[in-house]
Amino acid sequence: AQMTFLDLVESNLQLLERICELLGVDNVAFQYLEGLDSIAHLPDDFDAIYCQGSLINAPFEVIHDEAQELLKHLPIGGRWIELAYPEQRWQREGRLPFDEWGDKTDGGAPWVEWYDLPKLQQRLAPAEFDVILSFNFHNDDFNWFDLVRTA
Question: Which InterPro entries does the entry mention (predicted)?
């Protein structure tokens, strides 16, 4: 399997590259996300896109555009796997404005937005997906989505 790491924090990519070197993993590529144009250079045949809390740190409209660019690289049958924070946690923690909630969840992130399945599906539309998994865990602190693209 070939893995491509995409991140807007260059030091994260450097850390991942070092870890891969230490583990002897050599089937990897690293792409620094400077803007949406950076996504255009990615392969167009990913088997899966895995987002570990990375697409919750900007307003929905901004991330919608980024997700649409990423979807150009995920063919029918590809998996979209995403970890996020659920609305239940946002409610429990006082319904803070998203530009303040990141202080509580991510140690000072400038923006954190909750997601549930309908909101994620709206962000990914018009692409369509079957749901493999969609659930909250760890006392509703986190949620996990695993979707397979159908259209």
Answer: SAM-dependent_MTases_sf (IPR029063)
- How many Å apart are CA 99 and CA 130, to the nearest integer? 32
Cα 56 to chain center, whole Å? 7
Main-chain phi, psi angles of 67, to 5 degrees: -60, -40
- C-alpha–C-alpha distance, residues 87 and 66, integer Å: 22
Q: Do residues 75 and 67 touch, judged by C-beta distance below 8 A?
A: no
Could you tell me if 84 and 145 are in contact, meaning their C-beta atoms sit under 8 angstroms apart?
yes
pLDDT in tens, 13-52: 999 999 999 999 999 999 999 999 999 989 889 999 999 9
The domain limits of the chain are 35-149
147 by Cβ neighbours in 10 Å (0-12 / 13-18 / 19+) ranks as buried
In CATH, what class is 35-149? alpha beta
